[in-house]
Amino acid sequence: MPDKKNSETFAPDTAMVLAGGLGTRMRPLTLTTPKPLIKVAGRTLIDRGLDVLVEAGVKKAVVNVHYLADQMEEHLKTRDDIAITISDERELLLDSAGGILKALPELGDKTFYILNADTFWVDSQNSNLRSLAQNWDESRMDILLMLADRHHSTGHEGRGDFHLNEDSTLRRVPVDERSDYIYAGAALVNPQLFVGKEISVSSLNSYFNAAIAAGRLYGMVMQGHWLTVGTPEAIGEAEAALLTLA
């Protein structure tokens, strides 16, 4: 990673947790249960995400809800170790960037974490989110993505998401190539990217692409093991992997 500035003291205390998706690939489980409330080894996906946020020192999480939103809200009331604000998207699911735009007033004007509610990981020794914060450099970065190495992951199908340059900037993987690096569903982002943008259905991918064009999208390879459960069958695979990591 490039030289960091004030990395010893930088500790984001706010996160956006993206939890409003339909989870269609997880049917029939998600016909009655929102995907973030699916359990893997006895713990819901969203609680696993909130756990790592708490461990990293995050004090406030903004969680967007849409599908089976009442269940999400009731479950989130059980957490008393982190302040949770609901961003209600019942009327219209706004996708990843749109959800952040709607929640921006609650997220504040300082760099915050983004966390997907349907992926999780096991840290090796140190918190990967704390490492992400230690590598953040606002003078060089608009977005810093946490990357998983496919050789230390479970449940991923695909050709990878980004190539990692020597200076830790990222570039997209061409359609005829593969990469060992997967976007791990966690990132740091400068909220200034979203200021003045109209709230609409929009994806973070367009912001990733703009940051690549500006040379300001960076990546950090996480330490430990990354897991994703895209189908009901993948739950057993993830639980088996967790047993080997215990």
TrEMBL record:
Entry keyword set: Nucleotidyltransferase, Transferase
One MF annotation (Gene Ontology) recorded for this entry: nucleotidyltransferase activity
Record-annotated Nucleotidyl transferase domain positions: 15-242
Broadest EC class assigned to this enzyme: transferase
Matches recorded under Pfam families: NTP_transferase (PF00483)
UniProt superkingdom: Bacteria
Enzyme Commission number: 2.7.7.-
Keyword Nucleotidyltransferase: yes
UniProt keyword Transmembrane helix, yes or no: no
Cross-referenced InterPro entries: GlmU-like, NTP_transferase_dom, Nucleotide-diphossugar_trans
Entry-linked PANTHER family: N-ACETYLMURAMATE ALPHA-1-PHOSPHATE URIDYLYLTRANSFERASE (PTHR43584:SF8), NUCLEOTIDYL TRANSFERASE (PTHR43584)
Name assigned to this protein: MurNAc alpha-1-phosphate uridylyltransferase
Lineage: Bacteria, Pseudomonadati, Pseudomonadota, Alphaproteobacteria, Hyphomicrobiales
